[in-house]
Amino acid sequence: MSSAVEPVLMAVVLLAAWSDIRTRHIPNWIPVSGAVLGLVLHTWQGGVLGAFDCIVGAAVGLGIFLPFYILGGMGAGDVKLFSAVGALAGPQALVLVFVLTGLLGGIAALIVAIYNGRLRETLQQTSELMVDVGRMRWSEAREATTAAGARALRLPYGAVIAGGTLLSLLIRH
Predict the structure, then answer these.
(1) What is the DSSP string of 10-50?
(2) What is the pLDDT of residues 40-66, one digit of tens each?
(3) Total number of domains constituting the chain
(4) 131 within some domain
(5) What share of the chain is helix, strand, coil (3-state, %, to 5)?
(6) pTM higher than the cut 0.90
(7) Domain membership of residue 102 as a residue range
(8) Assigned domain for 146 exists
(9) pLDDT 10s digits, 148-170
């Protein structure tokens, strides 16, 4: 990832995190702007191959988080943000961002569950969801995520994505 892309990537994830924490919503202009700037910068620096790398990164980011959205465990803004991160970071760097985001998300979810006195319930629901997904029982998995409704513990995952992205930049330097 070039030094010209890094400040744009940082700005995109920080804006998304701020918005998600404040309003529990990531407006479309944030990930769309990030993806467009990623395409422009990668094309400018790498030509057709740079554009291809950007598009593949966006597709990988979309592909990774889209199932979570379909199952009801993640908002569309989070999916679009991760796709924009992929467009900016590229597919290779996105793997590290994904791993770090997953680790931070797990830690944050445990903290929220403990804080709300619902650790046992959260772990049991997560276990059941993983079994349903592992057995490819998609309707049961979707039903389990929507059954909790307003009672579900929700994270501003845009902030978690920002944390994973920024941590990946620190590790790479």
Answers:
(1) HHHHHHHHHHHHHHS---THHHHHHHHHHHHHHHHHHHHHH
(2) 999 999 999 999 999 999 999 999 999
(3) 1
(4) no
(5) 85, 0, 15
(6) no
(7) 5-116+153-172
(8) no
(9) 555 666 789 999 999 999 999 99
